[in-house]
Amino acid sequence: MTITNVASEVIGSVWKVEMNVGDAVKAGDTIMILESMKMEIPVEAPVDGKITEFKVQPEDSVDEDQVLCTIES
Amino acid sequence: MHNRELGSEMSDAGKKDVAETPINEELYFRRVAALEMGGKEAIERQHANGRLTVRERFSELTDKESFREVGTLAGSGEYDENNKLVRVTPAPYVAGMARVNGRPVAIGGEDFTVRGGTTFGAARRKGGQGGFIEDLAHYYKIPLVNLIDGAGGTVTSAKRRGYVAFPGVHGFERSVQLLGEVPVVSAVLGTAAGGPAGRAILSHFSVMVRGTSQIFAAGPPVVKRSLGRDIDKEELGGAATAVDKAGTIHNAADTEEEALEQIRRFLSYMPQNVWELPPVVPCDDPVDRCEVALRDIVPEKRTQPYSMHDLIDLVVDKDSSFEIQPTNGKSVITTLARLDGRVVGIVANNPKFYSGAMDASSAHKQIRFMELCDTFHIPLVFLVDVPGFMVGLKAEQEATLREGMRAVYVAGQLTVPTITLVIRKCYGMAGMATCNKNDIDLKLSWPSGEWGSLPVEGGVAAAFRRDIANSDDPKAREKELEAELRAYASPFRTAEAFAVEEIIDPSETRPILCEYIALAEGRLRANLGPKRKAGVSP
Q1: Is the Cβ of A66 closer than 8 Å to some Cβ of chain B?
Q2: Fewer CB within a 10 Å sphere, N or C end of chain B?
Q3: Domain final residue, candidates B252, B268, B284
Q4: What is the mean pLDDT of residues A10-30?
């Protein structure tokens, strides 16, 4: 079992979360959409696995490199 | 001195030939000593650390059998009481000329297996921070390749010399001068600090290997002594810091072989020197290839990003793009590529990263790339989707405004032809950094193009603050004003005024760009030679 932290590449805010804890994801799936510089930025799963935790919710502000959720694989 | 010739000398037949004349016996003995480098054990250690020896690197990088060594015999000889040679330790630096992609280069690199590649005191420096190899590149106007794997000066050299040297070795000015004359490339293939680290930066393209190479102004022991902090050398100066975060080194590679391949690739786009044009290669990708996919690559919804990398690949010659600094300053993409076999530099904003907004790191990256292309007569194509400078506290603390204006300043000084093609947004001062207003100032646009001093959203809120606040329904009033102003934002209205020169069908992008780049050749030829330095950049 490895836990992968999915971090934000940008400063912005969480617009919507597209998945739930426990959902299976494949690398490249969109987990949530951030809003940054008036643009919708999809956050994609870096690996295959299962979402174990969300560390943010809609409308939260996020910083560069901030962990958004974790994936177990 | 040919490696291959020496190999055959070492066969039995060759040995017999040279053994017949005593003078050649000594030459043979000394050449073999040079090839043995720091000895079997040191070579094994080098390999165990996941690294090649300097001679293996040369044969990996250069065309087969093309390396002609200079200074093979330089080193320290040990003699017995009758002055007979007992042993030679070769100099910790190997140099010579070779061919890369069929064209000559000057090449040098430290031999880490000999005294850790430390600076070598001889009558004349072989190379590294100025020496024979840098002079060879200067006088023969050929590219310089530095393979860096050495610790530079050590405090023990003061003991040998009897005094401490003043900073700045003689010959360093040559390394500086070369940056305006010939392509200089460097690979960091070990742990580089001090002088060798500085030398890696004095280049037009630099590459390092993830996991086996590090670069810093000073290593962990100095950090510990100066700041009392423990830090591991990979964290301090590995590729994650030096390439991805800082942009100190341009590109990272996963293996030494890949790093050397990147150097071959980079040099394939470069002329031999600033008095020549970059090489044109035959192209089997049709010039008139129209890509219908480009018509709907930009999403209708203005807030949705798309892949600028895909867009570039659809336009340029198949498999011809080579991205510089792909992991740093990611809101802009800088790529060397070809259009109908001719080299172009592509500067493209990346809507997937901060909407393509220019921040300090992407400004640095764009400036360096524009200067590279300008120096080596490579025309620039700007694929524009920039909403402006990056905003926010962090951006202001990083001097985004100043760095961004430097990009505008450098764009305004370009002497190579530039083509600006607006894909979507082109706003404000960051938009100014995507064209050369002092020149013919050729601006094309796709129908999806939009521009102005600042985007309508946000702009309306600022300019009509009182109007909006006094309205019965401020939200609705803001929307109304936005809709009114957006009508003026049609690119066709600007084309009516001939303030963009042409709006093109996206599918025609490749044929049109190929034509302009072919046209640029006469102009480039008329402006060969070194570029004038101008003024104080902001």
Answers
A1: no
A2: C
A3: B268
A4: 93
Residue B503 near residue B445, CB atoms below 8 Å: yes
Distance set, CA A38 to CA A13, B135, B136 (Å): 10, 53, 53
Contact B415, B374 (CB under 8 A): yes
Does residue B172 form part of some domain? Answer: yes
> Which of B239, B211, B236, B238 has the alpha carbon at shortest distance from B224?
B236
pLDDT (0 to 100) of residue B11: 41
Residue B216's φ and ψ, nearest 5 degrees, are -160, 165
**Contact yes or no for A43/A22 (Cβ under 8 A):** no
Yes or no: say if B387 and B356 are a contact pair by the CB < 8 Å rule: yes
d(CA B117, CA B45): 14
φ and ψ at residue B421, rounded to 5 degrees? -120, 115
Task: List beta partners, residue A43.
Answer: A32
Q: Does A41 touch chain B (CB under 8 A)?
A: yes
Angle at CA of residue B201, ends B199 and B207, nearest 5°: 105
The answer as to whether B6 is a domain residue is: no
Sheet with A49-54, side-by-side order of all strands: A3-7, A67-72, A49-54, A24-25
Q: Which CATH number fits domain A3-72: 3.40.50.720, 2.40.50.100, 3.40.50.2300, 3.30.457.10?
A: 2.40.50.100
Which residues in chain B have their CB less than 8 angstroms from residue A38's CB? Answer: 303, 355, 387, 455, 457-458
pLDDT of amino acid B14: 42
Q: How far apart are CA B250 and CA B252, in angstroms?
A: 7
Indicate if B98 and B184 belong to the same structural domain. yes
What ipTM score was computed for the predicted complex, to two decimals?
Answer: 0.77
Q: Containing domain of residue B380, as a range?
A: 292-451+491-525
In a domain, B502, yes or no: yes
Among chain A residues, CA nearest to B394: A11
Contacts of B187 (CB under 8 A, 6+ apart): B57, B145, B146, B147, B148, B206, B207, B208, B259, B260, B263
Decide if A38 and B455 are in contact by the 8 Å CB cutoff. Answer: yes
Residue B21 lies in a domain: no
Residues of chain A with C-beta less than 8 angstroms from the C-beta of B245: none
For residues B192 and B170, give the distance between their C-alpha atoms in angstroms, rounded to a whole number.
20
Residue of A nearest to B356 (CA): A37
* Residues of chain A contacting B455 with CB distance shorter than 8 Å: 38
Per residue in B515-536, pLDDT (tens digit) is 999 999 999 999 999 987 778 8
CB of A1 within 8 Å of any CB in chain B?
no
Alpha-carbon distance of B325 to B247, in angstroms, equals: 7
Residue with tokens 């090489």: B279
Same domain, B256 and B317: no
Q: How many residues does chain B have?
A: 538
**Shortest CB distance from B303 goes to which of A10, A39, A64?**
A39
In angstroms, the separation between the Cα of residue B352 and the nearest Cα of chain A is 7
Which residues on A lie below 8 Å from B353 (Cβ)? 9-10
pTM value? 0.90
- Tell me whether B226 touches chain A (CB under 8 Å): no
CB contact under 8 A, A38 and B392: no
Residue numbers in chain B where pLDDT is lower than 70: 1-23, 119-121, 152-155, 168-169
